[in-house]
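Dear Dr. H.,

I hope your travels went smoothly. While you were away I took the liberty of generating a structure for the chain from your last submission, since the lab meeting agenda had it listed for discussion. I wanted you to have the full record in hand beforehand rather than looking at slides cold. The sequence, exactly as received, is reproduced here:
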Amino acid sequence: MKRLFYVGVVGLVLFELANVWFIMPMPYSQRARSIDVAYFLYTWRWAFRAALGILIVAGLLAAWRAPAWRKWLVPIALVLTSGVAYAANFQLAADHMFRAPRAVRMQPASGSTVDRKRLVVGVDINGDARAYPVQFIGYHHQVRDTVGGTPILVSYCTVCRSGRVFSPVIDGRAESFRLVGMDHFNAMFEDASTGSWWRQATGEAVAGPKKGAWLAELPSQQLPLAEWLALHPTSLVMQADSALRAEYTKDKDFDYETGKSRKTLTGTDTISWHDKAWVVGLTLGGESKAYDWNRLRRERVVNDEVGGRPIVLLLASDTASFFAFERPNAVMRFEARGDSLVSGGLAYDLGGHGTVGTLAPVRAYQEFWHSWRTFHPGTTRY
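The corresponding predicted structure, in token form, is as follows:
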């Protein structure tokens, strides 16, 4: 019977470690196609714990009756098991490591304490503009808010350097989400109603009852707060949660233009097309294409075609703000003049407003190359 005790102890320790290993950035775990296994273990976690707990209880007395010093292995094993279980479910749990804000507090620019050099994810819906500093949402990973009467989910994954804004409405109901872990180095959120897991970089449900469904993406921009306020002077700005200021500063250089994070997972590789190198990614007409950030900094303007549609990509003079638009036709080519796009006698500002009409914006994302190519497997490189 004492074997049952030790089988239960070893089984429970391995089970708790597996639950963490599959959905956290552990060695080799994020490159495995293991999301279905991870979800199965997580869904049935209490059944596994109950079964292994029964084995521990069934063999406990026999193990304690072992002769001499061997009986003291029992309390040691119980303490070890308890410690592993606590660490796996609290200290290493994603939503305990990265806590949600108690409230989303917004201020106009005049009352904001956020450094204007900080990157933000900006949203403008029905004339209601709001800026969410990457320093804050990169820690929280996701923030729920309502902008222009529309519920939104602002998300950011610092390991992928990917910012996205989604509608949190699922089957006609505005959902709440929690950070559950990551898959292929990208954050995953669990919805409260169905327990499905949703990928941050794409909005796709990758496990659970809603698997195969997608959250609707909403337009957003990533740029320094100063540039966002120049384009949206009445914008509100998200402020720090006072209880979490120490957490916000742990990777304080991540979102500056230099990107000199010292952390292994969030650090930048300055060599083009390496895993942690920056790219700007576009998807248009069913085609995805990535543009090297180093080259964009040299050239500032790229005239190209994606999905058979002519586009122009501009890096502003602050070398941090980027904008993408559809060109009116394939013949028309732009060059940069200050922070304007110029072609012949026509000029357009960073908002796409010009001498004649307005350029249609194209969604563009700054990401680590490893993230863009993982979630856009057919992508080409400019």
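Two observations you may find useful: Residues 2-92 form one domain. The chain has three domains: 2-92, 106-248, 278-381.

With kind regards,
E. W.
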